[in-house]
Amino acid sequence: VESVKDSTVEEGKNLSFEVTLNGAAKQATEFDFVLKAVTATEDSDYAVVPTFSHGVTYSDGKITVPVGVDSFTVSYETKDDFEVESNETVQLTVGGQTAIGTITDNDVVVESVKGSTAVEGKDVSFTVTLSGETPHDTTFDLVLKPGSTTSEDFESTPVFSHPGITYDATTGKVTVPEGVDSFTVTYPTVDDSVVEIDETVQFTIGGKTATGTITDNDLRVASVKDSTAEEGQDLSFEV
């Protein structure tokens, strides 16, 4: 085997490797053949049974190349799943020559998240923009962290602008239905009577993060004015 060429394919299509020999086989010739999962997962990301061109056959870790063949392709079916994931790879070795196969994701991802500022008692909201319309139900991880707030400052159950979006509090996952390219996630805040500084929450969905700020609406001391008095007179401070 002279070379095996790397291959990249979008999930759901065939991952094909081009194998080149150093000449045409003069008789049926065997080569060792191994496919290893690197970051991809066998069965769930790709089919384990290869297909070959030019009459090449496979059995027990070896392939047999027929007479007259000087190159051929090895193909694996990849699976089109609904998971948002990074690129996944496999390693193919034929006759001592190795190549990497890369399976790219075709699912919509979170492109950006925009935070907001709200006065306590109002809703703090986050605008989520996707990389395109969801082609099917698509799931994203969602995490809300208190930041400088406490759990008493806001409601932890999200409200979505799109009625078809659902949230599983047990898994922390949001499912977005087909045809959605953006939406807002809202959390009601609590109008308390405590005088406090601005407070923040950190919102993360699909790996993108934004900050929400809750401002205080309670009366506070704006200033206290210095005072000077002659002894025997009242020392007065203006608040």
Walk me through the structure:
It is built from no helices and 20 strands. The strands form four sheets. A six-stranded mixed sheet has the order 2-10-9-4-7-6, with no helix packed on it. Strands 12-20-19-14-17-16 form a six-stranded mixed sheet, with no helix packed on it. It starts with a strand and ends in a 24-residue tail after the last strand. The protein is 0% helix and 46% strand. The mean pLDDT is 90.
Topology:
Blueprint: E1 3-5, E2 7-10, E3 14-20, E4 29-37, E5 51-52, E6 57-59, E7 62-65, E8 71-77, E9 88-94, E10 97-104, E11 110-114, E12 117-119, E13 123-130, E14 138-145, E15 159-160, E16 166-168, E17 173-176, E18 182-188, E19 199-205, E20 208-215
Parallel strand pairs: 2-10, 12-20
Antiparallel strand pairs: 1-3, 3-8, 4-7, 4-9, 5-8, 6-7, 9-10, 11-13, 13-18, 14-17, 14-19, 15-18, 16-17, 19-20
Summary tags:
239 residues, mainly beta, six-stranded mixed beta sheet, elongated
End-to-end Cα distance: 89 Å
Number of helices: 0
Quick one: biggest sheet? Answer: 6 strands, mixed
H and E order: EEEEEEEEEEEEEEEEEEEE
Give the strand tally.
20
The percentage of residues in β strands lies in: over 45%
**Poorly predicted ranges:** none
Briefly say what this structure is.
Helix content is 0%, strand content 46%. With 239 residues, it is mostly beta strands. The mean pLDDT is 90.
